[in-house]
Amino acid sequence: MKTIPPLLICPLLWLAATTAAAQSGRDYITVVGSSTVYPFTTTVAEQFGKTGKFKTPKVESTGTGGGIKLFCAGVGVGHPDIVDASRAITAGEIESCNKAGVREVIEVKIGYDGIVVAGSNKSPVMKLSRRDLFLALARQVPDPANPQKLIANPYKTWNQVNPELPAEKIEVLGPPPTSGTRDAFTELVMENGCTNFPVIKALQGSDEPNFKRVCDSLREDGAYIEAGENDNLIVQKLQASPKILGIFGYSFMEENLSVIHGSPIEGVVPTFDSIASGQYVVSRPLFIYVKGAHMDVIPGMRQFLAEYVSQRSMGEEGYLADKGLIPMPAAEVTAVRASLQSKLEKK
Known about the structure:
Blueprint: H1 6-25, E1 30-33, H2 38-49, E2 58-59, H3 64-71, E3 82-85, H4 91-99, E4 105-120, H5 130-137, E5 140-143, E6 146-152, H6 158-161, E7 172-174, H7 180-194, H8 198-206, H9 208-216, E8 224-226, H10 231-240, E9 245-249, H11 250-255, E10 260-262, H12 272-277, E11 283-291, H13 301-308, H14 311-314, H15 319-322, H16 330-345
Parallel strand pairs: 1-2, 1-3, 7-8, 7-9
Antiparallel strand pairs: 3-11, 4-9, 4-10, 4-11, 5-6
Helix pairs in contact: 2-13, 5-7, 7-9, 8-9
């Protein structure tokens, strides 16, 4: 008679126990992660729930970084099945997943989004550059009297940064370090803006960690204000305080165009078309990451993913575009569907 090797007994027992627990302990999908992706996944979840075949997935907004930590913490009903992400998962996060037993992570790109610097419609539009934003928000900047030296940011008003900007106090509400929007903003705006200065650009090739530290570190003196993961709260504060600016995803701005507007960056206004075409420089891909070990354990996983990448959801005329998601080109959508199908067939 064939015997099971001793080293396989515990994993097999664990898998059986996990499967049984999942089937009896949770009969709905759980999603955590990005506040930017949250409204898109929530919309798909609602459409999925309307079919009546499975329960509506539970979707929580925890921020990309916080969501990935929860997602990577383990396998089983106590851990999320999917994480929304407004940036790609990092190698370090994949390593953390692997250490906790989460070894099958399936990436699904869902579309694109722009990061906007928005203001109240009660105030004039501010035309900004990435250089302006770096000088306004960085913790350290080149000394105006000695450009080869870095000093604590001395700028108090926008016209000190750029004489063409208004003489208003620099106050910007933005996401915390756990947010994928914060990660994307520092990469797409701050790291680009800081390369305008030779003393910082020189670090890019010679001392990459120091380059990242200087470029990515935001002020802590009140000019940059962490506003949490609730982008709707930032919109409300812009309405209440018209002279401040806020940083968040394009989809939130689009939903609130009656009260706020996006600042042009490098001369390009953030719009659906400018982001889709790549003209607007502060744009990024959005993702969901799926736990492969839960695929045939939690009811409805395959069907939910099929709905997410369907033409009625992800197509140019799909319901996610109505929510502000910038659709991928048709060829890219086809490639995403084929890649996902290939991964699911191996499960």
